[in-house]
Amino acid sequence: MGRLSTAYGQAVAAHRHAAYRLAQARRALAVAAASAAPDTAELVAGLDRTAAALTAPPAAGPLPVRIGTATTVDGGFPALVPLGAGHHLVVDRDARDARVGALLRTLVLRLLAAAPAGTVRVAGLDPATLGATFLPLRPLVDAGVLAATATSEAEIAALLDQAERHARSAGQATGPAGELLVLVAASAPGPRELARLTALTHAGDTAGVCVLLAGVSPGAERTAPRATVLRLNERYALLGDPPGHPFSPDGRGLAAPVQLDGDPQPGTAAGLARQLGPAVRRDAPPAFADLLPARRWTESAATGLRTVVGRAGREPVTLAFDDATPHWLVGGRTGAGKTVFLLDVLYGLASRYAPAELQLHLLDFKEGVSFTEFVPTDRDPSWLPHARAVGIESDREYGLAVLRGLRRELDRRAGVFKRHGVSRLADLPPAAALPRAVVVVDEFHVLLAGADAVAREAVDLLEELARKGRSYGVHLVLASQSTTGIESLYGRAEAIFGQFPLRVALPGGGGVLDPLSDAASRLQVGSAVVNTAAGAIGADTVVRFPDAHADPAGLARVRHELWQARPAGSPPPAVFRGYEPAHPADTPAFTALAPAAGAPVALVGRAVDVDGTAAGFALDAVPGRHLAVVGTDPTGAEVLHAAVTGLARQHAPGQARFLLAPLVAEAQVVAADLTGLLTAAGHPVDRLDVAGLRDRLTGLAAPGEPDGSARAVRTYLVVFGVEAAAAALAAPDPETFRSGREELRTVLRDGPGRGVHLLGWWRGLRPLADDLGGAHQRDDVACLVALNVPGADLGLHLGAHDLAWRPRPNRALLVDRHDQRLQLIVPFVRPESQEQ
Ligand SMILES: Nc1ncnc2c1ncn2[C@@H]1O[C@H](COP(=O)(O)OP(=O)(O)OP(=O)(O)O)[C@@H](O)[C@H]1O
């Protein structure tokens, strides 16, 4: 109500005039009192009280608004009602009475004219005349001062929701400062909505809502005690006592009938709209378009990056990535608008700086689709030309890969600086100019969660990037719902966050500010506290920012414009979608497989890294070059399918043969598919059952050419569900007394040197260890793909006690015992596997 008090100040002159007229009336009535007209003395007293109220303006109070002329025998004087600051008006007839319609329109115009521009907003509801009451005020709708009239039940309910929200937030001083919402009911709505309207009239003087309610008759004084009640008869209106400023001592109201003012002059609404429009537009929540520059890609990033993020009051707020605020820390509870804020920033930057000036690395660790709009999809082939790497629902390992890449970039930049003898990005010669890189990590606490090797390395990398990034033009934006209590940051938080002078606290994100600051405690969604002094008390600016997603079509237009303007040949970003399965056919390294000299590779999945490189094992002649896929997850069969089809591509027909033993039901479909593919590619395929497998092992283990085949021909023994053959393998051969396991172990040791490789799917580590002859023989199968096997068991099997493997769908751990490689992968599956 602060601004209303200014309005009140402006209105005081009018009051004084009214008071003068009252004094005149009083003198006239005093004369009449001498003739002892019974009501006259009372009327004089009432007028005295009103005059006193009018000539002594309260510090912050209602606006006195004229409704018409009170008539006395001696002439007329203005009849005023207090409105705003917890004062309301109830009229007993509704707008179907033309006088009421005119009165409401007049009141709206007078309130708007009296208050400073931009401090009063009006919303009307009118179920009885379906909005006709407000039609003459149409220019005010166009100016954004008057909302479209609510006429249906749903519209009225939505309007009341909005008004109640406004009342609540104004009451907590979190709404747009001092804005008065005038709610005009030209006719009474249904009982439920009416009850909500009347309830709004009970809200205190800070609630920022003023209700003008027409069409409510008896008992209004009781149900709406903070409203002045106006009753109409056929000829004039009778004005009740304004609460707090009564005309009468006994509640009978003004004892002079009031002739209501008629409709304002034609053109008044249009004139007012012209005056108020610009101010209202400035005061409206900022629009997304306000964040964008007039012309695209005209700014230089040499000394920093700057963008408008929203408005403080009416002033645009620009934030920078520069020497003073190289990195930003953003806090806000879930749903507080973090993603929207980040999108505002990203679109603002991407519109100002060409891709040659700015690169974006975007990492999102939450379930959701924060940055999807920046990458090509089936629906929209566009991408943001600045985006280099985008991780959606990222794994922590992916985050780590991005951070490692950025650390390499720091080293590269250091080399460039050295070569040119400079220490600042701005000093590089134009031919060697480097783009600034903005790295956004949404929900970064996920990356740092726990105290495992990933968290430790991520903290180290973040610290280094934060420390050196300022000079090298690499800027971090870390956003999270919780910036405290992150275990891996203990003892390190100060060193890292100390490099983040710019803090943005969204609702619930006060953790990024000084512990004693409560600046963010009452923020609404759509606003944020911005602090460029690392959260220090007193350095706060409250910013309102627009909802980038409020106009998806407009947003898409901006994106498409940037995409169309991309430099020729610029590639789409490297995208990692955590939820997406990996298909061999979409992996360039897989589709490029062809017969070649050298050891064939068994590709088993896609690495969780920036480029999504194919991951696999070289099957060379070293003992132990066999593949074990372990876990009950049926993906095991899929991984073998991919490995085998990949191997098949590396052999011309006649150079390889495949022995397929699908021993478990889950593998039958996959094995049948594989048989078809291999046969079509011209490779011989033998299908084996348990007995066949046992036989072949003997042949493969025998000295000489494996199983009678020519040396140059590779043999791939592919067993799905090896444990299903456990009994058969354990039994000794009646003639040789050698068990199938012994034959198997011979094949494992000697096979690779003779071109024989086993690719097996074991559904548990235990049967694998049994087949190997104990965990100490683990190197006999050196290539492992672990699916859903517990980290502790895997650690035990591998003899690696600090193994941080947490099984999860669509992920596997690749282990190569020979080159000590541990790699998180997305295992290959056939597209059909998701349909089965
Ligand atoms: N400036 C804004 N004006 C109006 N509404 C907004 C604004 N910003 C966000 N919102 C609303 O808040 C919702 C949540 O915003 P957003 O998704 O950005 O939150 P978040 O903090 O990223 O939440 P989460 O972490 O759960 O994804 C949005 O769907 C939007 O409707």
TrEMBL record:
GO molecular function: ATP binding; DNA binding
Full protein name: FtsK/SpoIIIE family protein
Binding-site positions, ATP: 332-339
Domain FtsK residue range list: 314-515
Keyword terms of this UniProt record: ATP-binding, Nucleotide-binding
